[in-house]
Amino acid sequence: MNTWKVLLVDDEEEFVTTLAERLKLRGIDASIATNGKEALTRIGADRPHVVILDVLMPGLGGLAVLDQIRTKDPKIKVILLTGRGAVHEDDQRLPPGAFDYLIKPVNIDELIEKMRQALNAP
Amino acid sequence: MEPREVALIGRLIAGTTHEIKNILAIIKESSGLLQDILRLKKGNAVPKAEQIEKVTTRIQAQVARGNDQLAALNWLAHSMSDRSSSVGVNELSSGIFNLMQRFARLKQVELEVQPTDADATVEADVVRLLFVLVTCIEYYLDREPPKGRVVLRPRGSGEEAILGIAAGSAAGHQNAEKPEVGGGPLPPELADLEPLLGPLGGRLAFAEKGGNAELHLILPLRRDESR
Predict the structure, then answer these.
(1) Pairing mode, strands A29-33 and B203-209
(2) How far is the first Cα of chain A from the last one, in angstroms, to the nearest whole number?
(3) In angstroms, what is the C-alpha Rg of chain B?
(4) How far is residue B128 from each of residues A37, B69, B98, B196, measured CA to CA in Å?
């Protein structure tokens, strides 16, 4: 867990700031981005192991960011955050490039376990 | 109700409940952080008062934000259950403002209400009025660039109530010269709304004066309010 680098992406700044603080208290290197453009800049600069990505954001949305990660750096694992039961508008399937999804509000222990599964996956 | 009115109510409710989900997520993480600060502190380190204060202030702010969203939903529910009723233009504007917060945020546009000092009351089908106003506001939200501004200006004027909508530079200052009707034809998206306003005695018109342009939704005042 000490070597994990995580990027949290959500337009609700107080949410990602607080979640990052909690992850840091658990020894996880967590940084934040509050929009899609900033997320892509940080991914390019910091190369996180895992990205926790909100689906519905103003401007460049989560699914567009996911698409770019999948194209440019497919080794980065992406876990989607959504307020709805389904992550995709049309059906229940996971979008290409996403490892899994969680529904807000998240349980931090579940989030960490999901990240562990993502990092252990091939 | 017309199918498009039902669809709009659905969108407004979905937007508001999504905001409430986000609020609950912040409250959950903040309260979790307080627990973490107490449980995960190193040795006998005493938690810093400023840190606790910051987190509890955040929780209180989100509770206030959640309260506004629930008030908006409650107002919508009552409007639907008592469709033909009187409503003050300030109340109507405030309700729409709270319900459309998420819409504006997703467009990265600031939505603002400038309430009037002298409230005016109209008697109308509130759901129909809501549909017309939201459609008009969305028309502007869709056309404003990111970081733009759309302002809702309710007011009474003689025998009528006016709900003015302005965007961009025309959003200007509250004391700017009041536009007068006569600013050109309505675009097709808004002209489509006119048949809905007829039965309410209302109309839509562009207004312009001194470089300030507004879209006006004009309605007759409630009979006992005529000035």
Answers:
(1) unpaired
(2) 17
(3) 21
(4) 39, 21, 18, 7
The domains found in chain A, sorted by start residue, are 5-120 (3.40.50.2300)
CB contact under 8 A, B105 and A14: no
Q: From the CB of residue B31, how many other CB atoms can be counted at a distance below 10 Å?
A: 14
Q: How many CB atoms lie within 10 A of CB A57?
A: 24
**Cα of A34 to nearest chain B Cα, Å:** 13
The helix or strand, by DSSP H or E, that contains position B26, with its residue range, turns out to be helix B3-39
ipTM: 0.89
Prediction pTM value = 0.86
Q: Could you list the mean pLDDT of each consecutive 10-residue stretch along chain B, which spans 227 residues? A: 90 92 95 91 75 94 95 90 83 92 93 89 89 94 93 90 88 59 79 89 84 85 68
Strand partners for B215: B165, B206
Give B6→chain A minimum CA distance, Å. Answer: 20
Cβ(A42)–Cβ(A16) below 8 Å: no
Which phi and psi angles does B216 have, rounded to 5°?
-110, 130
CATH number assigned to the domain covering B84-225: 3.30.565.10
Query: Please, which contacts does B39-47 make with residues 24 or more away whose CB atoms are closer than 8 Å?
Result: B40/A25, B40/A26
Which residue type sits at B63? V
Report yes or no: A74 at the B interface, CB cutoff 8 Å: no
